[in-house]
Structure formats: C-alpha cells, structure tokens
C-alpha cells in the first residue's frame, strides 16, 4: 500500500529520553522526525517539491488543477484567519475561551480535503480547520466557546460530530460508526453511494476519520479503539496530530517511541507524515481512506506538526517552552511553505494572493458579525433535549423553575420593593 | 401464558427485538457462541448471525464507545456488561458520552442504547461480581434506569428499553435469573405498563414498602410474614429508578402514613434516600413516622460467606417495618 510503512521495522525503539532539552537551545522537543524514507514529505520547508511516486500518484488530479491547489492554500489561510480572529475575540471578551490551531493548518486542511461527503468525522476540540472544510460555519465553531451552546452544529448536516472535550473518548465513536458502515454493507449488500468529489480512486464504502492529539495516545479509549478497529477491519483512519504538546506535557512524556510505532502492535497500518506539508498529508490520508474503503483495514496516521500558540487562550506556554523552539517551527510554517511552492509554479499570482486574503477578511468579518448577533438561549432551554421522551421528574423541575422565574417578572411589573 | 425463568424471558424479549427491527444489534463479551455467562443471549447469534450479535474484545469502554458510534450511524445497540462491577471501566463513556450526546447536540443525535447489567449479590460470587451501582446512573441526567424483578417485566421492559429513544441502563438481578414466573408473550407492548410506572405487588394499608429488583421477592415474603403478625404491608416494585414513579409512592404513603425503602446498594446517597426525601416533601402531613431505609451497608461488597450480613433479608426488612411502626426504639442516627 503506498504510503504505508511497516511500523514494526522502524528504528523507533531507542529511548527518547524524558529529560527535556534546554529551553534556550532551540532544539525542538519531541521524537526526531525521520526525514529519511519513513516520514512522508513532498514539499521541503522552502517550498521545493520532491517527487515520491508512490505518494504523488494520489495527487495527480490536484497537481493538474491550479484551482484545486489554490483552494488548499485558501482554506489554510482562511482557517488561520478564523483562528486569529477568534483569539482576538476571546481577548476582547466575546469568547470565554478558544483553543488555537495556529501551525496545524496543513494537517487539518490537507486531511479534510481527502474526505468524501458521505464520510464521517469524529474530532476533538481543536479541529477548526477540518470543520471549516466540512462546511461548518465559522460562527458555529465559536458557539461552544462563547458559552451559548454545548455544540454549534448538526452533525448530520456536515457529517462531522461536534467537538469532543474528553481526550480520546471519541476515537471509539468513530470505530463504532465505521462498524455501522460495515453493518450497513452487510445488511444492504452494497457499499454506500460513491459520491467522489476529489478525483481520486474512491471505490468502496464510506469511511471515518477520527482526529486526536499526541496526548490522547495515552488514553485507554484510544487503545481500545485500535483493538476494535483492527478486529473488524473497520473503515476508519486514526489521524493523530502530534503537535508535540499536551498542554505543558511534551510528547516524550506520552510515549518512549514515535507514536506511529504503536500501529503495528495493534494490527494497524501506520504512516508518519510531515504534518506541515499539505500535499503530503492529502496524499497519505487519501491512501489510508482508500485502504479503509476497500476492506484493507484501519490506518494510524501520525502527522508531525506543532502547536505554535497556547493550548487554549487560558494557557501560558512560556512557562514550559522557549521562544527558540517555537521559532524553529515557524521556519516550518505550513502556509508559507505551500505559498512558496505555488509562487514557484506560477499558480499563486499577486492577484490570486489578494483574492485569498480578501476571502479570509470576509470570513473573519462575518465571524465577528455573526457572533455578535448570536443570542443566549432563554433560561428554560437548559431543560430541553436532556431526554428525547418525557421524563416526569425533569418536567416537574422545569415547571417549578419556570414559576420561580415568573416570580421575577411579577416583581418587575409591581415595581421595586 | 407460559412459565419462564427471568433469563429465558429476557432471551425471548431480545429475540423479538432482533426479529422486529434490523437496526438492533447486540454487543458484549461472550454473548455470541457462549450465549452469555448467564445464557441470556443463548442462541441469538446462531439465529441472527455474527453481524447482529457481536462477541467483542474484553474492553467495556470499547463496548460502550463503539455502541455510541453505532447509534450515531442509526443502529440501536444493546450492550451486555458481563458483571455489575465491570461497568465502572465504561463509566466515562456512559456518563460523559451516552448520557449527554442528545443534550450536547441540541437534540440532533439520539443514542437509543440499552445497557444491560447483571446486578446485585446473594449468589456467592467473587469480588466485583455483586455490586449495586444503580445510584451512580440515577444521579446522571440523560439516562433512564430500570431494574426488572419478574420474568414478565424482563420480557416486556427489555423490549420497551430497546425501543426507547433515550439510553436505558437496564439492571437484571442475577440471583433471580433462574426464578420462574408466568409470562404473557402474546401481549402487545402497547398494552403493557409503561417502563416508568411502579407496580403494586402486594396491596396493604399499614406500611408502604418500596423496593426493586432482587429484593422484591424478599419484600413480598416480608409482607406475608408481617400479615401473620397483623401488619398490612403494601409492597411497591419501583421498576424504574429514573424516572422514579414518585406519584405511585406518594399515593400509597398517603394511605398508609408509613414508608420503608429497601435496597441492596449502599445506604449513603442511595436510591432509598431519594425516595424517602421526595415522599417526605410530598407527604409530610400524612406521615406518622420518619421514613426508614433498609439497605446494604456503606462498605465494599463483603466476601461471599458474609454477604448475608450485607444484603437485606426478610428479617431486616421486618425490622424496618417495626421501626417505622415505632415498635423498635431508635438506636441512634446510624440505625438502619
């Protein structure tokens, strides 16, 4: 299978060392990224494209389509702009919290572009880029963080579950959904409708991608998800964004071996990809999805990337890492890298660049406007949707609280006491 | 009418669910070829196939978590937790995911999952095989919690639970698995008592005795013994713990003026506390005495040879009846 390495043969068994590098040395934390045969990288940090036939073959349509290439860039730029706008909105008190995605745009946009419409995504709380590509409105990304909803969208409208805060808990949901795809095929005797949109080889069933981070790899639920997925050869891709940090804990505290090395032991295929290379991410995710759709079983993709901002806007990363480390990853910036490549190809002209920035400005402005217009639900809405069917005790509680609230209305009508 | 054990009644109920609705799937450890350690799913995999009745890896969080995903996809999963004490491993998936998904998604994602859990002691089992964890789930909004006591209820309520669009934690008292009773397998579900309704098992006029699950039979025996002593005890099988049928309890307490609640689970913050507190709020002026709870102790479940000191038996329930009648002087705040 192109892009799939046998993780058991990787040189990943030497101790990574739990002592962290000096914050001032500029040496990034984390396991060394294998820049040799193991880690898939098609664009170097300067934007120079290197051929790699077994991966390039998943990109033939994109490589031949300037519009598709520009769309990848545009989505990354827009996601970065949404992220910056939301961060600013948090600082201005419009959002209670925001988990920034700065630095991970290629991992998210590249993988999300590999998905078909009938695929389903289960993600954690930082996958703003994936959600945007799936069609989630930017204001819907922010509702939870504004505190006006526990989730911002209808999962079935965009085939993406709403954000999951329990780290790794949703990996199992993705596997269960994928088992349901298999059960549907068993029951109906035919795979799902093929609604290919991306021009790649899209035969086979729908599939699932579950997104989580390096910290989640330590959670039991993720390991159980690997077991169930392998047992049933479920059509699921586990997409781990190793962004090096779980709040203040480096990835070396989660694992003594590269995360992708765990795949083999569970019976998963494993592939490590440069998560800041949007083309490489798109290629390996397409390959993994194709494998899933056609009965080849689940894949663990480890996208090596970096969370350049804080864990959330409540976090202070200067307490646990140095500026030099962040700077080293700025030089691997996913947007700059891809833009340089497109400039070199003549695809990104000044006019195209202006257009992309204009789109980003409009999306950010709409986010700000829509957020200001988003209303806090009425108090009694907290009792809605706890149960699908009537629950007498809760109904009585709601009625009692409604009477209590109505008492204030009477007070207001009667004037101050 | 036919005479069935509670386990066989569950088996027939589940069989009917599988036959009537192709979206029903069963998941659990050893439920396929073995038919479950209590044989509740006996023969179902052979009849409906391994795609409908799945033997899972030994991973309770995995069973519940994949059930969430299956339900997301439109299935109605029925999961079996092999023993009560094993459900704690799946606790996060139940309380953080199963119970909340409908609220989290503002009503767009329904998780009609039935979580079957053999429950309680009295079987001489090893550690982790005799727990009564129902209070944890009653305390969790978004879940419905039921416990069946009779083969008839086992047959009907399991079908109601599977048909319910809310997640249902479905407790099965394991020491009653092989107790027999009359079951009308021809009755339509619509004609059966609803899942949330309590049932008066023995009518009475002096004391209301509320219990559920494995203790219902013991409570009926206690009522018989009390009648010999001239005390008329009304036994109510709560059937549903969330929502609890507080109306039925209140109606009875208003007639009897006295309430005893009995269960196997620990005393502190148990279901009995909720029943007693609610009845007190609603019926204070009717009460002749403070409600009395007869429960398991606030201890980890004891070794098998001592469990008779933990699980309320007929005499402890009668002692509770005596206390609520004022026949036994209060011995202090810890008198139970």
UniProtKB/TrEMBL annotation, chain A:
GO molecular function, one term: branched-chain 2-oxo acid dehydrogenase activity
Key words of the record: Oxidoreductase, Pyruvate, Thiamine pyrophosphate
EC number: 1.2.4.4
Keyword match Ribosomal protein: no
Domain Dehydrogenase E1 component intervals: 76-365
Reaction(s) the record says it catalyses: N(6)-[(R)-lipoyl]-L-lysyl-[protein] + 3-methyl-2-oxobutanoate + H(+) = N(6)-[(R)-S(8)-2-methylpropanoyldihydrolipoyl]-L-lysyl-[protein] + CO2
Segments for region (Disordered): 1-37
Cofactor names: thiamine diphosphate
Domain of life: Bacteria
Bias (Polar residues) ranges: 1-11
One GO term of the biological process aspect: branched-chain amino acid catabolic process
InterPro entries noted in UniProt: Alpha-ketoacid_DH_E1_comp (IPR050771), DH_E1 (IPR001017), THDP-binding (IPR029061)
Family listed: Belongs to the BCKDHA family.
Known role: The branched-chain alpha-keto dehydrogenase complex catalyzes the overall conversion of alpha-keto acids to acyl-CoA and CO(2). It contains multiple copies of three enzymatic components: branched-chain alpha-keto acid decarboxylase (E1), lipoamide acyltransferase (E2) and lipoamide dehydrogenase (E3).
Name by which UniProt lists this protein: 2-oxoisovalerate dehydrogenase subunit alpha
Species, as recorded: Xylanimonas protaetiae
Lineage, broadest ranks: Bacteria, Bacillati, Actinomycetota, Actinomycetes, Micrococcales
Automatic annotation (TrEMBL), chain B:
Cofactor(s) demanded: thiamine diphosphate
Database matches in Pfam families: Transket_pyr, Transketolase_C
Record keyword Nucleotide-binding present: no
Entry keywords, A to Z: Oxidoreductase, Thiamine pyrophosphate
Domain Transketolase-like pyrimidine-binding intervals: 4-179
SMART domains membership: Transket_pyr (SM00861)
A Gene Ontology molecular function term of the record: oxidoreductase activity
InterPro entries per UniProt: THDP-binding, Transketo_C/PFOR_II, Transketolase-like_Pyr-bd, Transketolase_C
PANTHER family found in the cross-reference section: PYRUVATE DEHYDROGENASE E1 COMPONENT BETA SUBUNIT, PYRUVATE DEHYDROGENASE E1 COMPONENT SUBUNIT BETA
UniProt protein name: Alpha-ketoacid dehydrogenase subunit beta
């Amino acid at each position: 299978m192109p892009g799939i390495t046998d993780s058991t043969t990787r040189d990943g068994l030497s101790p990574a060392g739990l002592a962290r590098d000096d914050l001032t040395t500029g040496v990034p934390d984390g396991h060394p990224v294998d820049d040799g045969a193991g880690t898939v990288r098609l664009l170097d940090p300067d934007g120079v494209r290197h051929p790699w036939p077994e991966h390039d073959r998943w990109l033939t349509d994109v490589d031949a389509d300037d519009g598709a290439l520009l769309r990848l860039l545009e989505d990354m730029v827009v996601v970065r702009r949404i992220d910056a706008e939301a961060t600013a909105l948090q600082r201005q008190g419009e959002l209670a919290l925001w988990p920034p995605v700065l630095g991970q745009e290629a991992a998210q946009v590249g993988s999300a572009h590999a998905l078909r419409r009938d695929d389903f995504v289960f993600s954690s709380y930082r996958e703003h880029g994936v959600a945007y590509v799936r069609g989630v409105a930017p204001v819907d990304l922010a509702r939870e963080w504004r505190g006006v909803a526990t989730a911002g969208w209808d999962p079935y409208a965009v085939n993406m579950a709403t954000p999951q805060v329990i780290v790794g808990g949703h990996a199992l949901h993705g596997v269960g959904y994928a088992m349901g795809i298999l059960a549907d095929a068993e029951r109906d005797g035919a795979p799902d409708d093929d609604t290919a949109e991306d021009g790649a080889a899209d035969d086979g069933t729908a599939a699932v991608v579950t997104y989580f981070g390096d910290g989640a790899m330590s959670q039991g639920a993720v390991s159980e998800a690997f077991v169930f997925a392998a047992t049933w050869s479920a059509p699921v891709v586990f997409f781990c964004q190793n962004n090096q940090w779980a709040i203040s804990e480096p990835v070396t505290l989660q694992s003594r071996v590269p995360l992708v090395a765990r795949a083999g032991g569970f019976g998963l295929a494993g592939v490590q990809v440069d998560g800041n290379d949007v083309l490489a991410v798109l290629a390996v995710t397409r390959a993994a999805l194709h494998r899933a759709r056609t009965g080849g079983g689940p894949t663990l993709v480890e996208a090596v990337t970096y969370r350049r901002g804080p864990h959330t806007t409540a976090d202070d990363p200067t307490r646990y890492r140095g500026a030099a480390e962040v700077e080293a990853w700025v030089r691997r910036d996913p947007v700059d890298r891809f833009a340089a490549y497109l400039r070199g190809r003549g695809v990104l002209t000044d006019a195209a660049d202006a257009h992309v920035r204009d789109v980003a400005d409009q999306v950010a402005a709409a986010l700000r406007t829509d957020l200001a217009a988003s209303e806090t639900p009425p108090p009694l809405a907290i009792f809605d949707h706890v149960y699908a069917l009537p629950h007498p005790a809760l109904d009585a509680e709601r009625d009692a609280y409604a009477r209590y609230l109505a008492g204030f209305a009477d007070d207001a009508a009667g004037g101050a006491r | 009418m036919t005479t069935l054990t509670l386990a066989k009644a569950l088996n027939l109920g589940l069989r009917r669910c599988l036959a009537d609705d192709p979206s029903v799937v069963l998941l659990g450890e050893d439920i396929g070829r073995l038919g479950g350690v209590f044989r509740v799913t006996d023969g179902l995999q052979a009849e409906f196939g391994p795609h409908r009745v799945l033997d899972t890896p030994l991973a309770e969080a995995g069973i519940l978590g994949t059930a969430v995903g299956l339900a997301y996809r439109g299935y109605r999963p029925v999961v079996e937790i092999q023993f009560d004490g094993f459900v704690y491993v799946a606790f996060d998936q139940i309380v953080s995911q199963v119970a909340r998904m409908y609220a989290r998604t503002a009503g767009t994602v329904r998780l009609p999952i039935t979580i079957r859990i053999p429950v309680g002691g009295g079987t001489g089992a090893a550690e982790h095989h005799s727990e009564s964890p129902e209070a944890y789930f009653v305390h969790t909004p978004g879940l419905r919690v039921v416990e069946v006591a009779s083969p008839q209820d086992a047959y009907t309520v399991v079908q109601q639970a599977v048909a319910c669009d809310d997640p249902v934690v479905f407790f099965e008292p394991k020491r009653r698995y092989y107790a027999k009773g009359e079951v009308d397998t021809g009755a339509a579900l619509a004609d059966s008592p609803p899942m949330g309704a309590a049932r008066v098992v023995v009518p009475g006029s002096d004391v209301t005795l509320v219990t559920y699950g494995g203790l219902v039979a013991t409570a009926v025996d206690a009522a018989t013994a009390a009648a010999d002593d001239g005390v008329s005890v009304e036994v109510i099988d709560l059937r549903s713990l969330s929502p609890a049928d507080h109306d039925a309890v209140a109606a009875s307490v208003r007639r009897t003026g006295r309430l005893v609640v009995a269960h196997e689970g620990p005393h502190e913050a148990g279901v009995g506390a909720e029943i007693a507190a609610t009845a007190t709020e609603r019926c204070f002026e009717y009460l002749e005495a403070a409600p009395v709870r007869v429960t398991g102790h606030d201890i980890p479940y004891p070794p098998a040879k001592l469990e008779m000191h933990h699980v309320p038996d007929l005499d402890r329930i009668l002692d509770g009846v005596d206390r609520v009648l004022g026949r036994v002087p209060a011995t202090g705040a810890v008198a139970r």
